[in-house]
Amino acid sequence: MTSIDTTAQAADAAARDLADTAPAVRAKALVAVADALTANADELVTLGMDETGLAEARLRGELKRTAVQLRLFAETVVDGAYLDVRIDRADPEFALGPRPDVRSGNEPIGPVLNFAAGNFPFAFSVAGGDTASALAAGNPVVVKAHPGHPRLSRRTAEIAAAALGGAGLPAGALQLVEGVDAGVAMLKHPVVKAASFTGSLRGGRFLADVAAARPAPIPFYGELGSVNPVFATPAAIAERGPEFAAGLAASVGGSAGQLCTKPGLVFLPADHGLDEALAAAAAVEEHRMLDPRIADHYQHGRDAILSAAGVRLIAPGSVRIDGDGQGWVTPTIAAVALADFGPHPDALLSECFGPVTILVESPAGTDYADLLERLFEGELTVAIHRADGDDVARLVRTAARRAGRVLFDGWPTGVAVTPAMQHGGPWPATTLGATSVGTAAIARFVRAVAYQNAPHDALPAPLRDDNPWHVPQRIAPAGESTTWGDGID
Questions:
Q1: 258 and 217: one domain?
Q2: Which ranges form a coiled coil (predicted)?
């Protein structure tokens, strides 16, 4: 196997060429990867089904999402707004004294290490959003393969690397390493300038500490976990209780609950009357979990929830371990009175990765905003179910301080791949709060550089007056500083 240093040096060599690659070339390369993955969908999906236990429909949908992400970042590259080009013309009459010509823009950060996720073997793995956004920014990527789908990782890397090379990107633009030791060694290598991660709080915190302890620390963009609380008003339950029950069960049970946005705690009125509807909606076929380790963790987490004082079962769910050690599960829905939830919130506030959720049955007049403020530190999502006339303004403001995405009358699973999406939140949902979905994800892998009084032929293409890349430029002309603030009442 190629040594870590050889891989790092290949990425470093590619970084110099990629940084100067025209946007159109990078964009076409991303589209080429999308086309290649789509053309090999049958082979890749079959591998994914075998290694992860995820259903064919889920994996085909995820592969399509992966291709769409690549195409979205191709458009982002060509648009060029992410470069944030600013040009201040030289101004001898500047309000604070003569101003030099200053031009700034975002440039590639350098080789990026991407720790692939296990629960999204396409969309957050070898050719997923982290890889797409880093390549789009002009950086080579080294992917640390997830051990849950090694054969799929290798084949995806082969297909994607071939597509990138065929589109004109340098060798070393996309490489793969395997194993925990290799991932840690690569994270410590001085060539690597940023890292991304999707996984557990424990694993992510360990890697974040490694990144911070380097002689030259680097940004570590980790998505670590989230309970994703849901708050439903009495009027919302009275208005659409059956639909609420069906939506909750589907969100909790989809993909065996192995989603970072699965709703883990649901605050709703004590007299909700949804037990029967929830139990019926949760009666679905068993689904295999990703691997024996995750099944074991889920079983222990579920047992801890169900053994907490005051917890009752609405839908008991099931856990079956087969002869290969694989776990097969159905959704579990439990409930606890708010009065019983309070004495031991830690046992119930921890993320349990799998198809389980807890209803916190709250008496009339419960202040949801106060609960959110006191109990939650940082989440990927907060969902609010309301009816016309409900005053949830304070709850919404509190939710915005605690989560990266606040959604209404819906469920947090099924993250839309759109330019405006924010998939990140305050610690411990993520390490740095940045998004890993949407076009803003590219901002993780660039850094701003300013050039002062630079000769035209020394400037990067997007900062030149002739603007050969045709990117947006914000220009501050000479003379404007003398009128700053005059038009503001």
A1: no
A2: none
Report if residue 482 sits inside a domain. Answer: no
Distances (CA, A) of 170 to 17, 49, 61, 161: 7, 32, 30, 10
User: Once rounded to an integer, what is the mean pLDDT over residues 369-380?
Assistant: 96
| 169-224 pLDDT, tens digit each | 999 999 999 999 999 999 999 999 999 999 999 999 999 999 999 999 999 999 99
CATH number of residue 10's parent domain: 3.40.605.10
Q: How many structural domains is the chain composed of?
A: 2
Question: Which pLDDT score, from 0 to 100, does residue 344 have?
Answer: 64
pLDDT of 374 strictly over 80: yes
Cα separation, 384 vs 187, in Å, equals 39
Percent pLDDT > 70 in the chain is 100
CATH number at 300 reads: 3.40.309.10
Helices (H), 137-179: 150-166
Task: List the helix and strand counts (H, then E) for the chain.
Answer: 15, 19
Tell me, yes or no, whether 59 and 153 share the same domain: yes
Between CA 439 and CA 425 the distance in angstroms is 16
Full DSSP string of 107-122: EE---EEEE--SS-TT
pLDDT category of residue 489 using cuts at 50, 70 and 90: confident
| Enzyme catalytic residues | 223, 260
* Contact of 265 with 349, CB cutoff 8 Å: yes
Q: What is the mean pLDDT of residues 381-390?
A: 98
In single-letter form, the type of residue at position 173 comes to A
Can you give the pTM of this predicted structure?
0.95
Residue numbers of the domain that contains 391? 230-408
Neighbours of 461 (CB within 10 A): 16
Instruction: Say which DSSP state 173 is in.
Output: S
Give the H or E element holding residue 33. Answer: helix 23-39
